[in-house]
Design goal:
The complex is a heterodimer. Chain A is about 35% helix and about 25% strand. By secondary structure, chain A is of the alpha+beta class. Chain A has three domains: about 5-55, Uridine Diphospho-n-acetylenolpyruvylglucosamine Reductase, domain 2, CATH 3.30.43.10; about 65-170, Uridine Diphospho-n-acetylenolpyruvylglucosamine Reductase, domain 3, CATH 3.30.465; about 180-285, CO dehydrogenase flavoprotein, C-terminal domain (Enolase-like, domain 1). In chain A, strand 8 (about 155) and strand 9 form a beta hairpin. In chain A, helix 10 packs antiparallel against helix 11 (about 240-255). Chain B has six helices and six strands. Chain B is globular, with a radius of gyration of 16 Å. The chains are: A alpha+beta, B alpha/beta. The interface of A and B includes residues 6, 8, 108 and 189 of A.
Chain lengths: ~280, ~180
């Protein structure tokens, strides 16, 4: 369908953008790469009166790597992450997951901030931010505030970003070089949303896994971790019995909805399989 | 709401400057087709799934249905109309190396998806002239062909690589502009 009518502004500064959003109340929507918002408009699932394009605001497209981790500006595109000379060694889980985002032309325009603000529970970036305990930096009239990922996502397609606020940056905590990790995704077609994906990482000390993080994407309708499966593996060797314990716990603790794509039982089984494959990949790295 | 007034957007299309008056809600795809009469860019699903409308913006393949015309301000846009290499000795439009490879490999049947396939592949080979079959398939995975001619398409793209390895074939030289603001 053709898009509904809306007004458009491309402010040159953050302050101007926030002022525009404020003036239009909840009726204005920020526009970055538009790879989620444009389909939403085409289906007329939203009919904002004004789009505030953040494409002309300087300083939102930087990738910074430091002692405190990785900082991605809101307008960093998927292709910027995939083509970055050192991100694959600095944060391999991020780069691996982003390689699964949609298709080549979408990855050339879709942005980190747009995906996080859209908060689709089947999208890779919200899942990675949640699993890695990222911090979001949100700008408003009074300055910026930091929100932990666990508080940022309030439901499917919902976040704590206010109507006159902009997500400006996501900060991923430091990633030890020796960390073990895996990312496995299952979709019916290349580039389609995941029926289930699992991000897994842990550190190894004296042959056992510590700080086990298991996040599930796409299967359950929300971004979530698998605390039961994490606990089942914590302090244990990541061997066949350890992986089996995590898989069993994961299948027991998820409650996927039934939809046209798959039954609940199928998705539950698939989550276990993704946990198994992600942990197997982690041990092999 | 009543329609906001149109505004002028200026960008470069296939090497030529264009100035167009558009409503903010007009997609780049519809701007190219309706305002600039560049109807080689096809519009299929209009929500970013089929890839028929793929054009190249600032050197990268993008969905022109998932981009507003107003967002193209100052950008360099390449469409299928710019992929040929000008006129041959007989005065006919000459095919670029990728187009010629599509012809050799029968990489199209109905032709609806072909402009999107060509622009995606052109952008890919311009950046990655050594792309292997897996990479080509991955990059084209977002372009749907309902005649299901993917094998010929992938073979054609792979066969066109030497022309890109020798230096990326460019578009047409700039001649005159298009003004559709009046």
């Amino acid at each position: 369908m053709k898009l509904p009518a809306f007004d458009y502004a491309a402010p040159a500064t953050m302050a101007e953008a926030i002022e525009l959003l404020e003036r239009h109340g909840g009726d204005a929507r920020p526009l970055a790469g538009g790879q989620s918002l444009m389909p939403v408009l085409a289906f007329r699932l939203a009919q904002p009166s004004m789009l505030v394009d953040i494409g002309r605001i300087p300083g939102l497209d930087s990738i910074e790597i430091g002692e405190d981790g990785v900082r991605l500006g809101a307008r960093v595109r998927w292709c910027d992450i995939l083509e970055h000379p050192s991100l694959r060694s600095v944060h391999p889980l991020l780069v691996e997951a982003i390689g699964h985002v949609a298709h080549y032309p979408i990855r050339n325009r879709g942005t980190v901030g747009g995906s996080l603000a859209h908060a689709d529970p089947a999208a890779e970036m919200p899942g990675i931010a949640f699993t890695c305990e990222a911090t979001m930096v949100i700008a408003g009239r009074a300055g910026t505030r930091m929100v932990a990922a666990r508080d940022f996502f309030t439901g499917p397609l919902e976040t704590v970003i206010g109507p006159a606020e902009l997500l400006v940056e996501v900060r991923l905590p430091p990633w030890p070089a020796a960390r073990r990790w895996g990312f496995e995704e299952f979709a019916r077609q290349r580039g389609a949303f995941a029926l289930a994906a699992v991000a897994a990482f842990y550190d190894e000390r004296d042959g056992v896994a510590i700080g086990v993080h298991l996040g599930v994407i796409g299967a359950t309708g929300v971004v979530q971790r698998l605390p039961g499966a994490e606990a089942a593996l914590e302090g244990r060797p990541v061997d066949a019995p350890g992986i089996a314990a995590a898989v069993a716990a994961a299948r027991a603790e998820v409650d996927p909805p039934e939809d046209a794509e798959a039954s609940s039982a199928y998705r539950r089984s698939l989550v276990g399989t993704m946990v198994e494959r992600a942990l197997a990949a982690a041990t092999a790295r | 709401m009543s329609n906001p007034p149109p505004r002028t957007v200026r960008f470069t299309v296939n090497g030529k400057p264009a100035a167009v008056e558009v409503e903010p809600r007009l997609t780049l795809a519809d701007c190219l087709r309706h305002a600039l009469r560049l109807t080689g860019t096809h519009v299929g699903c209009e929500h970013g799934v089929c890839g028929a409308c793929t054009v190249i913006v600032d050197g990268r393949a993008m969905r022109s249905c998932l981009m507003l015309a107003v967002q193209a301000e100052g950008c360099t846009v390449e469409t299928i109309e710019g992929l040929g290499t000008g006129l041959d000795e007989g005065g006919a439009e000459a095919l670029g190396p990728l187009q010629a490879a599509f012809r050799r490999h029968h990489a199209l049947q109905c032709g609806f998806c072909t402009p999107g396939m060509l622009m995606t592949a052109h952008a890919l080979l311009s950046r990655e002239p050594d792309a292997d079959a897996d990479r080509v398939r991955e990059a084209l995975s977002g372009n749907l062909c309902r005649c299901t001619g993917y094998i010929g398409i992938v073979e054609a793209v792979l066969d066109a690589r030497p022309a890109y390895q020798a230096g990326a074939p460019g578009g047409q030289p700039a001649t005159g502009g298009i003004d559709r603001t009046g």
